[in-house]
Amino acid sequence: MTITTFSSRELNQDVTRAKKATRDGPVFITDRGKPAHVLLSIEEYWLLTRQRRNIADALAMPEVADIEFDPPRVDITIRPAEF
């Protein structure tokens, strides 16, 4: 993976080149010499966001749909409070 850096001015002058650079990795866009933004390909974005699912989404995934999950039942008895 290659990280490419463009200044804001370079990005404005050649957006196509910046978009093509995302094929090799993220493109950092700087403002006044400091990183301010990151340009990613949509595939890289999906990979990053896919890892942050909630448990319901993860369990609904087709890869885990055929896994049997039968948690043991918990027996909770209620006792009166002792004061």
TrEMBL record:
Cross-referenced SUPFAM superfamilies: YefM-like (SSF143120)
Superkingdom of this protein's organism: Bacteria
Entries under InterPro entries matching the protein: Antitoxin_Phd/YefM, YefM-like_sf
Function: Antitoxin component of a type II toxin-antitoxin (TA) system.
Similarity annotation: Belongs to the phD/YefM antitoxin family.
Protein name per the record: Antitoxin
Species per Swiss-Prot/TrEMBL record: Paraburkholderia susongensis
